[in-house]
Amino acid sequence: MTYPLIVLPFVVLTVIVTLATARLPRFRRRMASSGLTALVLVGLTLVFDNLMIAVDLFSYPPEHLSGLKLGLAPVEDFAYPLCAAFLVPAVYTLLSSAPSPKDAA
C-alpha cells in the first residue's frame, strides 16, 4: 500500500489549506467552482487513465495499491486532480488576501 501513503500528505495539506480559507470572502462560491472543476478533472482522469492502462502505456504493481479501482484506474490516481481542484484556488486566495509589503508601510 505504497501509493495511498504517498497520496495522504497531499490530501491532508489540501484539507488544511482549504479550511484555512473558510472564513475568507466567497468561500461557498469557491467551493462550488472547485467542486465543478473536480468533477471535470475526475471525469477526464477516469477516461484517460483507463484508456492508457488498457493500451498498456503503464501499469501499477498491485502490492502497492489499495485494491480499489474505477475501471482499470486505481482510486489513488483520483486524489491528485481532486487536490489540484481545491488546493490551487485555496493557495491563490490565501496569497491574494495577504497584506502586501506596501500596505504595511
From TrEMBL:
Pathway assigned in UniProt: Carotenoid biosynthesis
Source organism, top-level taxon: Bacteria
InterPro entries: Lycopene_cyclase_dom
GO cellular component: membrane
UniProt GO MF annotations: intramolecular lyase activity; lycopene beta cyclase activity
Domain Lycopene cyclase: 10-94
Keywords linked to the UniProt accession: Carotenoid biosynthesis, Isomerase, Membrane, Transmembrane, Transmembrane helix
UniProt-listed GO biological process terms: carotenoid biosynthetic process
Bilayer topology term: Multi-pass membrane protein
Subcellular location: Membrane
Name used for this protein in its record: Lycopene cyclase domain-containing protein
Source organism per UniProt: Microbacterium testaceum
